[in-house]
Amino acid sequence: xxxxxxxxxxxxxxxxxxxxxxxxxxxxxxxxxxxxxxxxxxxxxxxxxxxxxxxxxxxxxxxxxxxxxxxxxxxxxxxxxxxxxxxxxxxxxxxxxxxxxxxxxxxxx
Amino acid sequence: xxxxxxxxxxxxxxxxxxxxxxxxxxxxxxxxxxxxxxxxxxxxxxxxxxxxxxxxxxxxxxxxxxxxxxxxxxxxxxxxxxxxxxxxxxxxxxxxxxxxxxxxxxxxxxxxxx
Lengths: 109, 114
Description:
The structure holds two protein chains of two kinds.
Chain A: E1 5-7, E2 10-14, E3 19-24, E4 31-37, E5 44-49, E6 55-58, E7 61-65, E8 71-76, E9 85-93, E10 96-99, E11 103-108
Parallel strand pairs in A: 2-11
Antiparallel strand pairs in A: 1-3, 3-8, 4-5, 4-9, 6-7, 7-8, 9-10, 9-11
Chain B: E1 3-7, E2 10-13, E3 19-26, E4 31-38, E5 45-52, E6 55-58, E7 64-70, E8 73-78, E9 87-95, E10 104-105, E11 109-113
Parallel strand pairs in B: 2-11
Antiparallel strand pairs in B: 1-3, 3-8, 4-5, 4-9, 5-6, 7-8, 9-10, 9-11
């Protein structure tokens, strides 16, 4: 089910701008994951976070596991047209994984 | 390396017809397997997951069922489709040789019930 609050729902930005999105929950999680989904395809794992406070980068992407274990953010720096897609956060506790509703990113050249 | 396959890629079925979607994983052993449904423009809804052959857990009561006849094969079925079954169906796996909490998704099946 979807019990994570992901925001914003959508973003329209200019190429080259930085992007920030986040997920919050009333529950704690042991793991936070960020996925990107292109139209008509399955989500692709971008970053996985395993420790509270952890900050991890993957190229132009940076994500952090909130210190309270109830939130996470994803930043994309210097956006490019191929960053277009839907970004999902996911929180995992034992065998229970919850997904956010997604942030739809549009990048204007 | 591990790969996950789903077929068919697209399917158009009339209301009341049966359904069988297949998912297979290669390159890993004893994975956890998952079926999700994604409505247009929405997030992911977990339908079923399996931690082993013949072991199925259902998250949402509905007219769908799942089976795992082999270690790396996961099947989603229905005896009679409803209009509301339309959507994008995604299979995912985790575990095996990888960390349990990272789920990897297949390419999906687009189902349209008419």
